[in-house]
Amino acid sequence: EAGVAQSPRYKIIEKRQSVAFWCNPISGHATLYWYQQILGQGPKLLIQFQNNGVVDDSQLPKDRFSAERLKGVDSTLKIQPAKLEDSAVYLCASSFPTTSGSRGGELFFGEGSRLTVL
Amino acid sequence: AQSVTQLDSHVSVSEGTPVLLRCNYSSSYSPSLFWYVQHPNKGLQLLLKYTSAATLVKGINGFEAEFKKSETSFHLTKPSAHMSDAAEYFCVVSEGVWGTASKLTFGTGTRLQVTL
Questions:
Q1: Which end of chain A is least crowded, N or C, by CB within 10 Å?
Q2: Of the given ranges (A96-100, A108-112, B89-93), which has the lowest mean pLDDT?
Q3: Cβ proximity of A35 and A43 under 8 Å
Q4: DSSP structural state of residue B83
Q5: Using CB atoms, which residue from A45, A101, A103 is nearest to B32?
């Protein structure tokens, strides 16, 4: 079974430039997540999609970050303009939604996109 | 609101000795709890999960964890460490509502070092 695919793996940009990351989830997974992992910290949820609708974007800095999931499959996370503090690994994950009689579905993570902002 | 505290940022053990990574959680409801492992430059991988079934949960690679509600703990253990266990470990709590996608909250991670 193919895993969660992310690209690019590495990106170096200067501050105030823009960058976009792409994620292709596991086939059949309706739920897609973007996490930000700053060095030395645990992943922090940026946005969660259920199909192509947003479930939670409360921690997404909407003045500079945007994300979309057209057709409920692939997703793109964009940062414009980038700041130094955006240097991090951006993790995409996908899962089945929990169903009646269960709770706490397993997330499957991609290898991440490492962003360095100079 | 849910939260999770990993009590040690760094643990060092010798190969062949037991591993203990500590985690305490806070949750308004009966939580689901997970341990994920992250090897360098790799994505996170699920080690094990607790979802209100047996309190002692067995995972991959010989790891297990015990859910203790009275202590609000979910410590990760392994009887004998192997060099390949060196990685970052994250304790995670979820308060997913029945029938919807889960929302996970990650701890800050524990880096496990295994020495010869």
A1: N
A2: A96-100
A3: yes
A4: G
A5: A103
Which residue in the block uniquely carries the two structure tokens 């010798």? B14
**DSSP state, residue A39:** T
Q: CATH number of the domain at A23, please.
A: 2.60.40.10
A4: helix, strand or coil = coil
Q: Where are the domains of chain B?
A: 3-115
CB-CB under 8 Å, A30 with B101? yes
Identify any residues that bridge with B114 across adjacent strands, giving them in sequence order: B13
Structure tokens at B103: 């929302």
CA–CA–CA angle A72, A112, B110 (5° rounding)? 120
Mean of the pLDDT values across residues B46-60? 88
A contacts of B46 (beta carbons < 8 Å)? 106-107
CATH architecture of B3-115: Sandwich (2.60)
Total domain count, chain A: 1
pLDDT in tens, A7-44: 999 999 999 999 999 999 999 888 899 999 998 888 99
pLDDT above 90 as % of chain B: 68
